Amino acid sequence: MLTMTHLVALTPLILVCITAVAVMLGIAWQRHHAGTAIASAAGLNIALLSVLVIWQMGPVETPLLVIDGLALFAAILILISTLVCVTLAHAYLEKYPGPREEFYLLLLCAAAGGIVLAASRHLATLFFGLELLSMPLYGMLAYAFRERHSLEAGIKYLVLSAAATAFLLFGMALLYAQTGRLDLAGLAVALTEDPNAWALAGAGLMLVGLGFKLSIVPFHLWTPDVYEGGPGPAATFLASASKVAVFVVLLRLVLVAPAFQGDWLHGLLAVLAVVTMLVGNLLALAQSNLKRLLGYSSIAHFGYLMVALVIGDGLAVETVGVYLVTYLVTTLGAFGVVTLLSTPYSGEDAAALHHYRGLFWRRPYLTAVLTVSMLSLAGIPFTAGFIGKFYIIALGVEAERWWLVGGIIMGSAIGLFYYLRVMVTLFLVEPGMQRRDAPHDWGVRAGGVVVLGLALLVLLLGVYPSPMIEWVKLMAVAGS
Amino acid sequence: MNQNATALIAEYWAVGLFVAAVVTLCVFMIGAASLLGGRSRGRSKSLPFESGIIGAGSARQRFSVKFYLVAMLFVIFDIEAVFLFAWSVAVREVGWSGFWGAAIFIFILLAGLVYDSRVGALDWAPKRRVRVDDSI
């Protein structure tokens, strides 16, 4: 039975849902773009404050959800990236010829889905959260449906995601048939007593479903096309909040359920991790489109993150936390710049690299933000990315998994080349095709301020990471 | 591990046999037909054959997108009825908390219905897109 404690613990989720319903009623009452954006941002901010308030409460478990350190940590990351998407979308959609307000509705629903997913302790909430996260994303990706690429991205994600969901459901059905339980704790107990082929098959199929959302390598084929085609804010959300939520739930599965800890599956995860980082980085080399390049780079980054899943003990949770924070801040910065350059909406996003040629001579500060993000993605010292990569390599060395460490180093070396290639393009002298440019007052608008803040945060976390590490440690302690 | 594998095979050999049999049967049917069957070519041989009549018109008929919209709205509110049915069976057992849960559920769907009618999703006639357009 739901008690008051449960309701208090669920406040962030409830607040996001209330905001979504309020925004929907607001649209029905009167269409007002700025008003809708402000209402969404206000709701998300209040939800964020409520997370900070209930941080002290300690783990609370309802039959379907668990609000522990890990769930709250993920909720904070999801809410922050949704806020960034709202501010970016406000500027981006200003000139959009069509209904603009529904984007925020979809964004809020997806954020609620992400929070549910990260807090799930039952296969029902896992599935429900995953679908609530993905369904609005189809709409967001195909939002500019008069653009061929955007429509293609939406449909592609819809069809492939439905296939992945079928795998996930079949995996769940096999686990249920084997154990008769759907809650993760019960599954864990039942599977320790009697591990067999069907349970392993179920776990493997679930891994396929989740691996698709994370674009782990054999299931990565959708990533570049969808990133390229989706409108800027939607792609930003897909690359940040969606991936964080799915990764957190995968971490929970691996830590809690021993079905995911069998030797065979561990070996598989290790192979997938190495293949993912190498293939992601190698394919990124040939890209001439910044959004595609960022898509492949995110594939590679989730390959690095899977190292923590493979090792799965010691500092693994803390490593995942630190890496997710650094990845999120950096990705939001990079996608923010791409979105700002395509702002306000007028057809396809400015993502081809030749748009960025000589950008420094027109927009020095925006270029600085993108440069910092690229350095951080490459893992150069004094940026946040370095701290994350340091943690991953330290974890691998401590567990003496030399193949994984070798893969990370190889991947980083390859990655450095294409990140630096983007940076060189930015500083080339001859001006490129100036078809698209950020608005002149971008620096004083909300989106510009957010992007500049993110770049400063990347540098700050790189130079002085201890507060973040302390915070993530707290999360890891509260979560285990 | 070896012992384990033997036990597994003993337990599940029938499944493996079934999979192998399915594959073998498919390969046999396609392979034998292509090896033994005769083959003839001609100008009209590649036309789709439907009870001796040549197909008329294109297979790609265009439907009004409204059909899909109606279908989706139907599913949404149909599912609402399904959930409420489950509640109505257990209405005494779940008590007030169940009542508030159902009330919130109905309120959210009502908000959705208001939204649908205001954006014009419930106007079946194809030409009425005025309300969406004039607010731009």
TrEMBL record, chain A:
List the transmembrane segments. Answer: 6-29, 36-58, 70-91, 103-120, 126-145, 157-177, 197-222, 234-258, 264-286, 293-312, 324-345, 365-387, 402-421, 442-464
Is Cell membrane tagged as a keyword? yes
Enzyme Commission number: 7.1.1.-
Q: Which residues form the NADH:quinone oxidoreductase/Mrp antiporter transmembrane domain?
A: 120-414
Name the enzyme group at the top EC level.
translocase
Q: Where located?
A: Cell membrane; Endomembrane system; Membrane
Which catalysed reactions does the entry list for this protein? Answer: a quinone + NADH + 5 H(+)(in) = a quinol + NAD(+) + 4 H(+)(out)
The record's GO CC annotations read: endomembrane system; plasma membrane
Per UniProt, what is one Pfam family of this protein?
Proton_antipo_M
Task: Please provide the Gene Ontology terms (biological process) for this protein.
Answer: ATP synthesis coupled electron transport
Q: List, in alphabetical order, the Gene Ontology terms for molecular function in this entry.
A: NADH dehydrogenase (quinone) (non-electrogenic) activity; NADH dehydrogenase (ubiquinone) activity; quinone binding
Keywords carried by this UniProt record? Cell membrane, Membrane, NAD, Quinone, Translocase, Transmembrane, Transmembrane helix, Transport, Ubiquinone
Entry-linked InterPro entries: NADH-Q_OxRdtase_suN/2, ND/Mrp_TM
Kindly report the protein's main subcellular placement as a broad class: membrane
Instruction: State whether it acts alone or in a complex, and with which partners, per the record.
Output: NDH-1 is composed of 14 different subunits. Subunits NuoA, H, J, K, L, M, N constitute the membrane sector of the complex.
Q: What does this protein do?
A: NDH-1 shuttles electrons from NADH, via FMN and iron-sulfur (Fe-S) centers, to quinones in the respiratory chain. The immediate electron acceptor for the enzyme in this species is believed to be ubiquinone. Couples the redox reaction to proton translocation (for every two electrons transferred, four hydrogen ions are translocated across the cytoplasmic membrane), and thus conserves the redox energy in a proton gradient.
Q: Which NCBIfam families match?
A: NDH_I_N (TIGR01770), PRK05777.1-1 (NF004439)
> Member of which family?
Belongs to the complex I subunit 2 family.
The protein depicted here goes by the name: NADH-quinone oxidoreductase subunit N
- What lineage does UniProt assign to this protein's organism? Bacteria, Pseudomonadati, Pseudomonadota, Gammaproteobacteria, Oceanospirillales
TrEMBL record, chain B:
Q: Which Gene3D superfamilies match?
A: NADH:ubiquinone/plastoquinone oxidoreductase, chain 3
The reactions it catalyses are: a quinone + NADH + 5 H(+)(in) = a quinol + NAD(+) + 4 H(+)(out)
EC assignment: the record states: 7.1.1.-
The record lists the membrane-crossing segments as: 12-36, 67-90, 96-115
Q: InterPro entries from the entry?
A: NAD(P)H_OxRDtase_bac/plastid, NADH_UbQ/plastoQ_OxRdtase_su3, NDAH_ubi_oxred_su3_sf
Q: Which GO terms describe its cellular component?
A: NADH dehydrogenase complex; plasma membrane
What are the entry keywords?
Cell membrane, Membrane, NAD, Quinone, Translocase, Transmembrane, Transmembrane helix, Transport, Ubiquinone
Q: List the GO molecular function terms.
A: NADH dehydrogenase (quinone) (non-electrogenic) activity; NADH dehydrogenase (ubiquinone) activity; quinone binding
Enzyme group, top EC level?
Answer: translocase
Coiled-coil zones: none
Hey, which family's this protein in?
Belongs to the complex I subunit 3 family.
This one is known as: NADH-quinone oxidoreductase subunit A
Record the organism. Modicisalibacter muralis
Organism ancestry = Bacteria, Pseudomonadati, Pseudomonadota, Gammaproteobacteria, Oceanospirillales
